[in-house]
């Protein structure tokens, strides 16, 4: 009997004030959210998930800090060194920007984490929406330039990894230095953005090239993903955008001489799970109640430059009020999703201000009982709108408890998710093989 296609499931690690309220605090202990996230990673491993995940931004963003209230936002690659030593099997996918980090440092830190975790690292490659002011640039370079740099940076990081093979560790002879000098050769990279001699000072882990993730789905983002990524962290708020992205990436992958199914498309999934639909809906309402109407207007403006303040709440938003498609935006991915939604649906202002494209980073929002959440995910899986998902817990602790206790077992029962780990590297969990 052939094995059914398997889902890839990742979980975003976070903790917030809610966890703090549920925790018995030791008087002398200042809450940082670190212990809770380690516990969450252990729960995810117990549920045999493919990986835990963290996004990262190189700015102190008040919105982000407010969302993680009470929890310290750390450098994810450093944080994952701790997670890696507290777990044994689960993958750890860290985010690092190619716009701001020197490739030699990226190559070294990621490979160091790969040794610390025993081959469980994935690198989520981002080109970043903001942060240029912290790195000596006045403003963010345009999306195309950021992707050109990302492509060169990624190729260079991979070359650095290969410049120092793990077999070096096995050299055991009197003339070891001579043998090693032959084995670790400079790469002499001279590109448009970087000049790096190499070789790297950390050997590549024997599990091979670490899986590469990517986030950003503009034209240049998709081409970049199709050329190098093993998985993509996608923003697909509805089934149609998921189907379109999966189909498009498969075609582009083939254009780069890769197998059509070489890339796993993994949408972000905010979930709110209750014993009844009404309970889940109430969790969703509470999670968003801090978003005042003014904040929602500001978000619509930030994503697409759309000023809705002059319109009545029941007025329709139509294509003719959309700003020019060529205007500079923070993220083309997010702007295009909102633009397409408006053109297709002509929502009222009120409906628009409820949409994930405005209030939820364009991630899919799933609300319901465990059975309903299971069905919604399976519907998209079977329709070719996803290969898995990266769960972003949204509601109170109960919602997450139900995700582990009820939703994951439903996938196992349906034969689309593992009962136990077969391998012990992230590459094995994702079922991807080196080309
Ligand atoms: C789902 C998703 C997640 C992202 N996560 C991050 C992140 O964690 N850190 C970051 O700096 N940029 C992040 N980005 C921004 C992208 O790396 C990229 O810079 C941005 O989307 C612009 O690329 P585009 O022109 O392809 O849209 C994310 C983008 C998307 C779509």
Automatic annotation (TrEMBL):
It is an enzyme of class 1 (oxidoreductase). Residues 33-385 form the Luciferase-like domain. Its EC number is 1.14.-.-. Pfam families: Bac_luciferase. Gene3D superfamilies: Luciferase-like domain. It comes from the Bacteria. The keyword Flavoprotein applies. One of its GO terms (molecular function) is monooxygenase activity. Keywords: Flavoprotein, FMN, Monooxygenase, Oxidoreductase. PANTHER family: ALKANESULFONATE MONOOXYGENASE-RELATED (PTHR30011), C2H2 FINGER DOMAIN TRANSCRIPTION FACTOR (EUROFUNG)-RELATED (PTHR30011:SF16). Belongs to the NtaA/SnaA/DszA monooxygenase family. This is NtaA/DmoA family FMN-dependent monooxygenase. The lineage of its organism: Bacteria, Bacillati, Bacillota, Bacilli, Bacillales.
